Amino acid sequence: MRFPFVFSMIIATGLLVSCNSNQHKYEGQKAIKFDQYMFQGLQLYQTHCLNCHQKDGTGLGKLIPPLNTNFVTQQKDLIICGIKNGLEGEILVNGIAYDGIMPGNPRLTPLEIAEIMTYISNSWGNQVGIISITEVEEGLAKCRN
User: Fold this and answer.
1) What is the model's pTM?
2) What's 2-55 look like in SS3?
3) Chunked mean pLDDT (size 10), the chain, 145 residues
């Protein structure tokens, strides 16, 4: 009896994309993949990121940096590493220094990180497109231990 779940997921995905006001450049299978990444990315964001970075990506004042900025698109590898391994130490976002500790999520797979990255890279004014698993794996390979 998967039909109600699948149907509700399709509706929710359509609503997510239409409410997100991003008109993506994809068609066909690539559009479906983008919508899936956005939907799953939102679910993962709500589970792992929302408490600190907030529903609208604004962060928490001078404690938690915002994600509704081009910092997300300019520092993709840093964010990928941060999602997986956490971040510690000062970072500069839009001219504001943040010096806190972000816990990592070591159990997240490259696919899940790609979905989160796709969601935050296409929300709140950002419009990057799909962040692939390959991009995530390349970013993770650059992480400092």
Assistant:
1) 0.82
2) CHHHHHHHHHHHHHHHHHHCCCCCCCHHHHHHHHHHHHHHHHHHHHHCHHHHCC
3) 45 45 75 97 97 95 92 93 95 92 96 98 93 97 81
